[in-house]
Amino acid sequence: MLRFFYDRNGLNTVEVARGLLGHYLCHETASGLISGIIVETEAYLSNNDPASHAFKGMTGRNATMFGPAGRAYIYFIYGNYYCFNVVTGLQGSGEAVLIRAVEPLSGIELMLKNRGVKCEIRNLTNGPGKICIAYGIDKRYDGHDLRKKPLYLAENSDHGRLEIKVTPRIGISSARDKLLRFIIKGNNYLSRREPIG
DNA sequence: GTTAAGATCTGCT
DNA sequence: GCAGATCTTAACG
Asked: Does A52 contact strand C, using a CB cutoff of 7 Å?
């Protein structure tokens, strides 16, 4: 249970995007526990953010974004991949945080099996589509309450003081100037290498 | 009914 | 570094 999140109802999306770093994403599957540390996130806002799915208002696809904070918003993209978000903000506002990369902890054998491609462990969950494949997350969990098993967020009480870096978001064609991507500086499991300097 | 675009990944050069 | 795969969604006629 993420106290910083639920004590405040996950109100401020940017705060949640920063705050999720260092905590756990867990999935209890029939074959065992899959877990990892969240190391990269992006915020998608409701106001003046053309890159957000919620920018043009509620549609069938993005309805979950407008629901209560703390639920999963999962969408299908590029004909192949799911992406996993945490809904934030006041109900009806339409904001969310995209989880872009995770550092694998337990269930690594299971993740390798789910991915089905030969790759280094550092490439197992370093991208939003990869996370969903490795974790076995799909549309079933759209709208799922992330305080509840089998898919949930968990507090890392001693992750220490993190060095957080802010950058532009990845893979979008509008609002590229906004600094709404948050990463754990120097982490080896990010979706992109950090620029030198 | 048709079309264009998309919060991506993999494999090859 | 770049192209190709792949198909759902939403907007428009």
From this structure: no
**Any strand C atom closer than 7 Å to A196 CB:** no
Task: Dump pLDDT digits (tens) for A15-57.
Answer: 999 999 999 999 999 999 999 999 999 999 999 999 999 999 9
The answer to whether the beta carbon of residue A195 comes closer than 7 angstroms to any atom of strand C is no
Distance A182 CA to C1 C1' (A): 25
pLDDT at A197 over 70: no
pLDDT at A4 over 90: no
Q: Tell me the C-alpha distance between A68 and A90, whole Å.
A: 7
Rounded distance, CA A173 to CA A157, Å?
37
Distance in angstroms: CA A27, C1' B9: 22
- The answer to whether strand C lies under 7 Å from the CB of residue A76 is yes
List phi, psi (to 5°) of A121: -60, -30
SS3 A109: helix
Match domain A3-184 to its CATH number in 3.10.300.10, 1.20.200.10, 3.40.710.10, 1.10.10.10.
3.10.300.10
